[in-house]
């Protein structure tokens, strides 16, 4: 039986390069750390973006003009490709993974919520890593999460996780644009702190992902308010997750 469970969210900008292609070594480094945690009896629920990008790699340029329908098609094609990538990498470490595609209704009180809990807890008890992503093929308009930051926060609260780690392509929250020498990394934030003055367009991650720094902080603060310490850190750096688990400073921590 595991002694701790954490939720890790990895965004599109972490796993892709400037050409919007999936960088497999990044996924391998991610899984390597999850495997190391597994050996320490720490189970991970992985919330992973990437299905739309993966679908574009397979299909190429789509002729569909409607943006929502196009995203549905890319996601439907890309999701099995992402799972195949993860399956093969986890298999290399002697581990098993499973696909979970929730929609917003699965977090509403009632049968759907309990089914989600039973599914995730059942997988963890069997030593299987759940890999969750919004079901973009069917989730549109009102049924959509704002982004996978929201999904990760909701899952962390659903299973009462010990930690939530949100991996992005910068080191955390800065006082200004991360590229400016005058900007400083903000190491600690509390759930009630007003961070509007730090949330600017220059602090928003670019690329195919829907969630910028403002979104990450909003949902990090929501999880932290439920006594789930949450970290926003650079997923492109090696050993980021292990450093966080071992208590070494990395990124921005949001906690009570």
Automatic annotation (TrEMBL):
Recorded catalytic activity of this chain's protein: L-glutamate + ATP = L-glutamyl 5-phosphate + ADP
Location of this chain's protein in the cell: Cytoplasm
Principal location: cytoplasm
Residues bound to ATP: 9, 168-169
EC number: 2.7.2.11
Coiled-coil spans in chain: none
Keywords, comma-separated and alphabetical: Amino-acid biosynthesis, ATP-binding, Cytoplasm, Kinase, Nucleotide-binding, Proline biosynthesis, Transferase
Top-level taxonomic group: Bacteria
Keyword Iron-sulfur part of the UniProt annotation: no
BP terms from Gene Ontology: L-proline biosynthetic process
Pathway(s) of this molecule: Amino-acid biosynthesis; L-proline biosynthesis; L-glutamate 5-semialdehyde from L-glutamate: step 1/2
Enzyme class: transferase
Keyword Amino-acid biosynthesis assigned: yes
GO molecular function, one term: glutamate 5-kinase activity
Function per UniProt: Catalyzes the transfer of a phosphate group to glutamate to form L-glutamate 5-phosphate.
Family: Belongs to the glutamate 5-kinase family.
HAMAP family: ProB
Name used for this protein in its record: Glutamate 5-kinase
Species classification: Bacteria, Pseudomonadati, Bacteroidota, Flavobacteriia, Flavobacteriales
Gene name in the database record: proB
